[in-house]
Amino acid sequence: MDRRRFLAGTAVLALLPFDRAAATPDSMAEAIRKVVGGSAVREERVKLDMPPLIENGNTVPLTVSVESPMTDGDYVKAIHVFNEKNPQPNVLTAKLSARNGKAIIGTRIKLGDSQKIVAIAETSDGRFWSASADVIVTLAACLEEAT
Known about the structure:
Layout: H1 3-15, H2 25-36, E1 41-42, E2 46-49, E3 53-54, E4 60-66, E5 76-83, E6 90-95, E7 103-109, E8 115-123, E9 128-137
Parallel strand pairs: 1-9, 3-9
Antiparallel strand pairs: 2-4, 4-7, 5-6, 5-8, 8-9
């Protein structure tokens, strides 16, 4: 491929419609339904720790911890994190076992806009627990222009 064909192809791609943020509150609710099915989700036992105001959405710290004895008979099986305005509503799923010792995960995520984040813990007995946080992003991820 020569340079002219490459530049012409990229120019055509730049003109195509592009839906930057495909996830919506409804798509987040659907993603949560896929995980929990028809089970009730209680707003207890889960703590979602993240700053309420983010200057830059490129690297947003979050920690999810769940009250659990983490024994062979009673442990957190998975922690799921969802958002309502990024391209994908399911941010992450972390699989755990009793051998983890503590039900806690920490990571950094990108946020394209101010939005609600939901963390859901799935326990070994099939119950679901949750917490949520509203986050205000002053500078969205992936939108900064190079200077």
